[in-house]
Amino acid sequence: MEKRKTNRSLLLVGSIIVIVTIFYFLSTATDDGQSKKTTEQQLAALLSEIHSVGQVQVYFHYEQAVEKSQFLAVSQQPNLVGVIIVAEGAHQAQVKRMLKETVGNVLQIPTHRIQIVPMQMEEEEK
Question: Do the beta carbons of residue 114 and residue 104 sit within 8 Å?
Answer without folding.
Answer: yes
